[in-house]
């Protein structure tokens, strides 16, 4: 098998320093120490330059977060202004600040109907964990503490704390111990048509997959089920886009059994699907809680939020009693100011409309990859795509995991100047939402070359 040459042998001094002290997230440390990191130096628009001056197209918008692209002067200016005026403000003890108040109001205006309240945090994980605590608190205050089981899905990704790892649906992540998954979480299969139900039409399968939720609720007992947690499309767990019939039926089932619906929009929120929220794209009309992060500031500042419906907020307000939960930097004024400016620019420059328009073009190009000899299935939604590699198209046989075909494909792409991501053998793309059609052509060309090179290496 061909060896990929080191991407940049001249970066070894920095790579060595990196290895000396820096423990990276989601990293195999022995591999990192053998290979060295790709060290990013500067970025503008959809492009990143590494420490050696090599230009890379960021086909991942960082981690699905730099929706507005890199290097926006306005965001830097707003952050600097806010840091000079009020660099920090705690929000625990009946204290507030103007940017956070304004941001909460703006988010309510943008979000799906009925989500009129906002709890701020710093990361997606914290937003989801907040949602989990709110679910439990709600049912306690409602006088139904026995409703304490939540249902999540296989191949979900909801974060990296112990509770959100437990909600996530990848058993490998539980291996580090710590009592994961925590108690009170039940799991159903993902609406993954290609692997879980391709003997049916996608439409019929969407209803079948939603039916798995009903079966689970009935199995556990509706009087014990507190909530269903799910991403509109599944990102980090496998790039799975559900059939159109799935979500409306899920919503009906949640209503029927009085199960709260928690929609994790950490990746899908802020334009990724071609609408402000994945809820709009997938027909989710009245979620009880929605988590957002990443695109809220285009990751110019760490910020996240849990959007809360009137039903839950009124219970918290009317019954009162302290909600023992929060973070030092909840409602950070600099983050809030940056988020407001990020949203202002997105509206002014019609960034969501661009995601829909260019996303349509991107989706058509990506769909054409279905004919490639090692591509079994392609799925996309707005400016998000998953390209699933298979050893045998006819039988849908996957490559042997030990071959790490996806990793090879992403290395081939990076060598050609495109960052994409291997989720197992599914190649994920989610470029910044400001991407243009000619730039999409560039992304497509390199993706195709990387697939061809991978096919040559493994067939
Ligand atoms: N939820 C979803 C859907 C995500 O994709 C992620 C991260 O990718 C998270 C939650 C966790 O966000 P964070 O990494 O900011 O904690």
From TrEMBL:
Enzyme category, top tier: transferase
Highest taxon of the lineage: Bacteria
Protein's recorded name: Putrescine aminotransferase
Keyword Transferase: yes
SUPFAM superfamilies: PLP-dependent transferases (SSF53383)
Species this chain originates from: Methylobacterium goesingense
Entry annotated with the keyword Nucleus: no
InterPro entries: Aminotrans_3 (IPR005814), Aminotrans_3_PPA_site (IPR049704), PyrdxlP-dep_Trfase (IPR015424), PyrdxlP-dep_Trfase_major (IPR015421), PyrdxlP-dep_Trfase_small (IPR015422)
